[in-house]
Amino acid sequence: MKALKIPEATVVRLSLYSRHLRQLINDGTLTVSSGEIAAGVGVSSAQVRKDLAYFGEFGTRGVGYNVQELHGHIVRILGLNREWNVVIVGVGKLGSALAVYKGFASRGFNIVGLMDVSEQRIGLSLGKLVIEPLTILEQRIREKSVKIGIITVPGSAAQEVADMMTAAGVSSILNFSPRVLKVPKRVILRNVDLSVNMEVLSFYLSRFESRQ
Amino acid sequence: MKALKIPEATVVRLSLYSRHLRQLINDGTLTVSSGEIAAGVGVSSAQVRKDLAYFGEFGTRGVGYNVQELHGHIVRILGLNREWNVVIVGVGKLGSALAVYKGFASRGFNIVGLMDVSEQRIGLSLGKLVIEPLTILEQRIREKSVKIGIITVPGSAAQEVADMMTAAGVSSILNFSPRVLKVPKRVILRNVDLSVNMEVLSFYLSRFESRQ
């Protein structure tokens, strides 16, 4: 990922800009300034301009950005102008929550497989899918050209699942397990730790309380 | 949050550094360089030094950081040297997953209340807690001095829940609903959108594919 040069923080912000622009489209807004985008997302307007500058010239000085056009650009930059097939391995509470998460389908992420090793879970329906045994993972990845794998198994099983996914051709993994995973260089790995969000809150909370 | 000056991205990285340092402690490592921390977390060593410099001088030039000491500093900076009581409102799939998420308790976040409006859910046990009606939210927040509220209700109910939380004295909210919430200035609000992680993957995937 480093070789691609665009900072990951910029990509995360592009994702936030695209949400804000979609809201503006829904509200019927036609043009927007970098300052207005910045205020809507909670960053500086210089940051907005710098992030967008990685990808070319979008706005008109003194006029701002055409909302529809800028949204379309960002959607293409983020690769959201197409659909991506996704499998989820580990259909416990978190895996189930992700399997029915509405934000995925609306942005082009199609969950096409749910796999687990638990006999109690295999065969159950969740949304439009039936939970399948882990042994079918490689076949599903190949036949559905799955590019994204989500790992929501316990840490002890995570590396094995990652190995199966990458062997079958998955090129990116979202890892919710606490385990640090080893993947081939060509595979994009993103680790999600839900307690990071809580720690950001406790940072600001304890600074706030120490001032009182 | 802006008035507190430390960039949120720095706080997020501190959280990642603390994880890496805990791992080093477990491995028995005594000292570490900024370059080693950087490699472990996936940022530049200049970034590590800059982030730490906000909070004072920690390392010794040419020797590096004492792992235990630096970990202790960061834990205190993040406010993780104490416990925080937390309520979760909305005990659907995502709320249930968070209610039993092991990463919370181990970092000092105690879930002390689970509330929902569904008659099917109220009275059910989840971990050590019983799901209670939303009407009891304000009482629980006051009697347990809850500082952090997690919102995992549908967007249509999210503002009402946020209002109830802040009226009862919650000072920070983690919002998993897609709704943009209005909260009083004194309240720290953090929005979590799980599809942002997917969009970062699709960004790198589409850049990678367009090169082939």
Keywords:
homodimer; 212 residues; alpha/beta; Arc Repressor Mutant, subunit A; two-stranded antiparallel ribbon; 9 helices; 10 strands
Largest interface: A-B, 63 and 62 residues
The proportion of strand residues of chain A reads 15-25%
Would you tell me which CATH topology of the largest domain in chain A applies?
A: Rossmann fold
Q: What is the annotated CATH architecture of the largest domain in chain A?
A: 3-Layer(aba) Sandwich
User: Number of folding domains of chain A?
Assistant: 2
Please report the total strand number of chain A as a whole number: 10
Question: Quick one: overall form of chain A?
Answer: globular
Oligomer: homodimer
Uncertain segments of chain A are none
Q: What string, H for helix and E for strand, traces the elements of chain A in order?
A: HEHHEHEHHEEEEHEHEEH
- End-to-end Cα distance of chain A, whole Å, is 43 Å
Structural class of chain A: alpha/beta
The tally of helices of chain A reads: 9
CATH class of the largest domain in chain A: Alpha Beta
CATH H-level name of the largest domain in chain A... which superfamily? NAD(P)-binding Rossmann-like Domain
Please give the radius of gyration of chain A in angstroms. 20 Å
Strand order of the largest sheet of chain A: 7-4-3-8-9-10
Helix content of chain A: 40-55%
